[in-house]
Specification:
The chain has eleven helices and 13 strands. With 353 residues, the protein is an alpha+beta fold. The protein folds into two domains: 124 residues, 3-Layer(aba) Sandwich (Aminopeptidase); 171 residues, 3-Layer(aba) Sandwich (Aminopeptidase). Strands 1, 2, 3, 4, 5, 6, 7, 8, 9, 10, 11, 12 and 13 form a 13-stranded mixed beta sheet that branches. Strand 10 and strand 11 form a beta hairpin. Helix 2 packs antiparallel against helix 7, helix 5 packs across helix 8 and helix 10 packs across helix 11. The chain is globular and about 65 Å long.
């Protein structure tokens, strides 16, 4: 009999109480996970493993494949497992092997997990496949105001001063129902300008769900010109772990020359520092590339982290059959498809030109 027990757990207040004993991020909180079902269609589920009273938590979104099988991804954002820090890498691998057996019996075909670049930065399991996608950027909020200003690139400093000299005011606000309409309008105008895919045009219903579920774990920083909102950014906050993340943001096209987004980032960083947070994670470039977005974020901090995902094929035979059926491949081609970048490859849909 295995010394490791694995079971499903509901994503609810009891889940929150369980993970609160350990170091977790906002993406592990039930309000965030349940809201994520609006983005990644499926049902929220927790996986819990226990070994010698040490616990391992993995929140997932279950997605139906057919009447018998399903697969899972981590909730939108930087999720990953919550792990008892006393667990060794060897013990974690033992747990993952038991999770794999458990999920196979439950009808799961594959797992795709986005690892948290801060909490899971030491992840090195030999189970499954870890993929490094690129770099993300983080600001150390334990530094002083002078140190933060010093590490801010000159062009960003000039942008901040330009906003201030043009009487732009940035305010820290709660992400209330009343402010969602204004924020959504600004955000969508920016997504349109940059040519973002439909995936990034979040429905207002999702934002309203976030507001209701985790309002105390979100802050909005909005820039005003003559009392008109011209730019706004949404940040997640987790006081327990001391981590802030930039989440969504935008600037009205008419006011981009005033560079209010730089002022917003500057104000958010200062707020986090004064409130005793440890880190402000900016994220990386589009698709984890070192593009203009990445360079913009690097203008506020040069501290780099790696963004990784972890993939695990639970049922190899079913996985291959799905690849063959969905992509109309021969069996030999399906073998090669297992090594492709998209995971799970049977859910890949070619972009029609």
């Amino acid at each position: 009999m295995s010394m490791i027990s694995v079971f499903f757990a509901s994503i609810d207040k009891e889940w929150d109480e369980e993970i609160s004993i350990y170091t977790f991020d906002v993406y592990h909180f039930s309000g965030w996970i349940n809201s994520s079902t609006e983005v990644d269609e499926g049902s929220p589920q927790g996986i819990v493993a226990v070994y010698k009273k040490k616990k391992f938590f993995l929140p997932i979104i279950k997605r139906v494949i057919d009447d018998e099988y399903w697969d899972a991804i981590s909730p939108y954002g930087y999720g990953g497992p919550v792990i008892d820090t006393s667990l060794s890498n060897y013990e974690i691998d033992m747990i993952l092997e038991e999770i794999k057996i458990f999920l196979y019996e439950e009808g799961c075909v594959s797992l795709f997990i986005r690892l948290n670049p801060i909490l899971n930065k030491e992840w090195c399991s030999s189970i499954g496949t870890s993929v490094t996608h690129g770099l993300t950027l983080m600001c150390d909020l334990s530094k002083s105001e002078e140190e933060h200003w010093e590490e801010t690139q000159k062009q960003h400093r000039r942008g901040i001063m330009k906003s201030l000299n043009n009487n732009v005011v940035a305010k820290i606000e709660d992400f209330t129902e009343e402010r969602i309409t204004v924020f959504s309008s600004i955000y969508k105008e920016t997504m349109t300008k940059v040519g973002a895919t439909d995936y990034y045009f979040f429905d207002d219903s999702y934002l309203h769900k976030l507001s209701k579920s985790i309002q105390n774990r979100l802050i909005l920083v909005t820039a005003y010109k003559n009392d008109n909102a011209i730019a706004s950014s949404l940040f997640t906050i987790c006081k327990e772990s001391g981590i802030m993340h930039f989440y969504l943001g935008g600037t009205l096209n008419e006011y981009r020359n005033l560079q209010p987004s730089k002022l917003i980032t500057h104000i958010a960083r200062g707020w986090g520092r004064e409130e005793g947070y440890k880190a402000l994670h900016f994220g990386g470039g589009l698709g984890c590339n070192s593009d203009s977005l990445y360079k913009y974020k690097k203008g506020f901090s040069s501290e780099e982290l790696e963004f990784k995902t972890w993939r695990l094929i639970i049922n190899l035979e079913k996985y291959k059959n799905l690849v063959i059926a969905n992509n109309r491949l021969a069996e030999a081609e399906a073998e090669a498809e297992l090594e492709s970048g998209f995971f799970p490859s049977y859910r890949y849909t070619p972009v029609k030109v």
